[in-house]
Specification:
Structural class: alpha+beta
Bound molecules: 2-acetamido-2-deoxy-beta-D-glucopyranose
Radius of gyration: 34 Å
Length: about 900
Amino acid sequence: MSRLVRVTLVAFLGLCALSLVDLAAETDAPFSWMRPDKFDYINDMFSAVTGENCRSKPAEQLNLPRETIAQIPKYNNLLSTVIYSNRSAMLHMHNMALNRAFFYSFIYQKLNNTWDFLNQPGLQYYYMSAAADVSASPGFLNGSALYFDFNCSYPNWFRTYPFNNTIPFFGPRAWRADDYNEPTNFLREPTNNTMDIHDYGAGRDSNYSNSAYKTNPWYSFWMPDITGETDSLRKFTYSVGIKYSNTTGHFISDEFEDTSFFGPPQPSQTDGDQSLPVLFTSPYFDCGRSNKWIVSATAPVVEYFPRYSRYIHLRRPRFVAVSTMDTEFERIDMNQCPQAEGNPPPNYFAGTDRCKGTTMCEPISGYGFKRGGYQCVCQPGYYYPWFHDGPFLGWEIEEAARDEYEVGFDCIAVDERQVIPNVMPEFVERKKRSVLSKKTEFLEMTLPKAQSPRPSPRQKRHLVARLKDYKEKLLREKRSKLVARTKRDTSRKIHRNKRDAVDEIAANRFENILQRMYQTKPENCQSKQAHELYLPGDAGHGVEKLFEAQGRTALRLAHFLSNFLQNVDEYEEFGNLRGDRRLNETHIFAEVIANVMSDFKIKGSGVFFDRYKFRMSPPVNNTDPRFTDGITREFFGPYAYKLELKDEGLDYYKAIDFAGFKDYYVDASWYRDMKARWATNQYGLKKFTAKPMIRSNPMGTSLIRFEYYPLTYRAPRYEDGEWLRPQFKCDGMVNDWVVTYVVPFFGKNSLKTEIEFKGVVTVEAKLDYLDINQCPAEFHSANSFKNTARCHFESQYCVPSEGKRFTRGGYKCECRQGYEYPFNDLAWFFDGQTMEEEWRKLSAGEPNRYATLKCRIAGASSVAASVVMTLILACAVSAWTRT
Ligand SMILES: *[C@@H]1O[C@H](CO)[C@@H](O)[C@H](O)[C@H]1NC(C)=O
Ligand SMILES: *[C@@H]1O[C@H](CO)[C@@H](O)[C@H](O)[C@H]1NC(C)=O
Ligand SMILES: *[C@@H]1O[C@H](CO)[C@@H](O)[C@H](O)[C@H]1NC(C)=O
Ligand SMILES: *[C@@H]1O[C@H](CO)[C@@H](O)[C@H](O)[C@H]1NC(C)=O
Ligand SMILES: *[C@@H]1O[C@H](CO)[C@@H](O)[C@H](O)[C@H]1NC(C)=O
Ligand SMILES: *[C@@H]1O[C@H](CO)[C@@H](O)[C@H](O)[C@H]1NC(C)=O
Ligand SMILES: *[C@@H]1O[C@H](CO)[C@@H](O)[C@H](O)[C@H]1NC(C)=O
Ligand SMILES: *[C@@H]1O[C@H](CO)[C@@H](O)[C@H](O)[C@H]1NC(C)=O
Ligand SMILES: *[C@@H]1O[C@H](CO)[C@@H](O)[C@H](O)[C@H]1NC(C)=O
């Protein structure tokens, strides 16, 4: 290299470096482009409060604005809107709060006679119910409570307290404890299996009706309920029919016995927020307890109050307690995207995303209260640059420095967009591409868009060379195709590439499954063969994820029963404290009824006790010596189900004891399988620990440890239960397609030495709410619908959509990298339903535009702004201006 050139080069590089340093100095620090926004404001409030300083903070610093939680599930919209996975935990909290509200409302009003006083839930019932809410739903909720209003609860566990007297405050609350530092926890990692249970109505600072109490936002929603002005609006009468059985194979009566009770409000679609049965609090700091920012779903418990009084005229339905379910604020997904149809106000964080103008924002679920839970997808009419694979991720943008942000994260405009053609039959019929189209394709590929129509001689030479290459390439392709075809023919082995075809065998099977499903109806199910009432097991793919909340509702009951049957000894007394009696059948009926009433996806729910495992207390005033130790029923299977009355709008609920049927439920295969697994071998059950602190006396002077501290019980996990294959239940009760979850529960054996299998809890979820996934999947994925999406896989990939239910077409076909969406219709993907419909037309020989529903190769835009180019240019320009 000559000396001159070297000197110039060095000089040029030096200048260039100088100018770059200059450029940097003119602007601010690399991260200053991120201006503080509403997220920072909330984050400051969030981190300013800790467990140590919260007591001294004023109330307004312990609450965050209500709008920080967007898209709160509303009872009267649940059926008409799609609840996405980013709100499924909140929906479960909503349903569990309602579940407890229904349970206690029912049980108080059903067992309202004075002689039922001891059959009402006892102290341990409350504690174990709250513990089960928490232990059965990790990942969904972390706290469960029932707070009674002043003088609204009748305790039946103080032996010397008159039965018609109330106690001032009573608020048993369970929350997940951080047990990483326990002596028994040698892993030093929270196990999620330990619960603290305290009575908030006891000890110092127990007046949670007081506005100075700071952390009681749940109280003022429902209480105090003194005047009764809003009774007609906010209380609703529910009615449940129950059919009891007293001996195996017989019902006491052929009729359902009707029970009406007052419960939480039942709003119509148009009613406002005032009459919703479940209200969410704004985020508040749970000071002194879990010491976290939490959000509670609250629902009211209604009782005909006062329950025991000679002055009947004083009685009215009254909100006596509020049931709450808590979750951490940090776990609730926020939506940083701008307000839009899918992101309605109020949303405090709307518009704090950092997507650039050529992209638009889409939320990603599972981020919680953390920046970057979104991705920037190209606006309609733009495509991703070649060097970037798919959407720009929010968290990548959030950690970009200024320079990166300014040059990157932009999509490139699509040129020459088309308008969606209406039907174009000749387009479909044209089988072979004409020579002309090859030529235009070639020209499109080689000629930059901005070029003048008449190429210069130099360009012409270039073109001819490229044309030669291109022809050769075509020839090569043709040859290799021929070779491939002959190869396939000779070997007769079908090697199907997931990317290039729909699995027609699977598509046919899909069709048959849908047909079977649509053709089986309540009217004709009796005449169907037994196998026609089932779908294959792989038709229920994804159910364990999508219906996890429903499964966990059954699991909760299994946890409660396990805890109760392992720890409550019906003869125990603790001084003035009376231990719980045995479970009453009404309790379990109420539990299954509450399961069905509180969740619109649950069609039926039951508890099925094993043979001779349900023991009852002796009848009142018993004289029969056989029954002094109580009665043991051969079978007990309370089962509740929902009758959907479409015309009247309201559902009706019924419950029946399966012991009354002539066919024993213990002979059903779902029962036998569960029992076979768990009857002799309980390996794998988890141990749960509850630490109950109770009130020392009726007035709640102080909080003391319960006699058994801590309480432990062994219970199944969600994975220990089983989802059965989809079935049409043609039993005159459910009469619908359902998927059933079965989970066992365990109690002490009769010698109280070991635990044993006691029965199963079931929940039946409506199959129609299951989304199906038609997208390509691995060969081992047990999904009968995989590989049936009608995308054009050469240019598109398939993304399953949420909330499309059990029908065809619940997916999107999005353009692959290097391809672009060709139409000018504000979309950037092809909808699965359109693809399916056009495909149907195509196979029926009707005019269609299936062949046009493809992405086209992204045109290399003339200013394919490469980062390197820009930098060099900037360098050169600055160097040049300096000299
Ligand atoms: C118990 O409740 C039922 C139904 O609400 C009512 O008819 C009955 O009078 C109540 N009994 C007592 C003792 O309050
Ligand atoms: C506890 O729960 C959290 C959140 O659901 C989960 O991430 C964690 O893995 C769980 N811990 C254990 C030991 O299971
Ligand atoms: C409780 O019952 C007793 C006896 O029936 C009665 O004398 C007393 O007034 C009742 N107390 C209340 C608070 O109703
Ligand atoms: C609360 O209940 C107790 C016991 O039933 C009773 O003595 C007291 O007067 C009640 N207080 C009020 C304000 O009603
Ligand atoms: C609880 O606080 C409220 C509001 O300050 C007050 O009216 C009520 O008397 C208090 N109750 C008790 C039992 O201290
Ligand atoms: C069950 O109820 C029926 C109808 O009330 C009655 O006739 C029968 O004696 C009862 N059986 C038992 C074992 O209590
Ligand atoms: C529940 O608590 C555990 C342990 O503290 C935590 O990891 C988890 O995120 C919490 N989950 C919810 C839903 O609040
Ligand atoms: C949840 O996801 C849906 C669908 O992606 C979206 O429309 C909605 O805005 C998301 N909600 C939140 C709070 O992120
Ligand atoms: C359950 O409660 C009902 C209503 O009080 C009562 O008739 C029944 O005898 C109780 N059953 C048992 C087993 O105690």
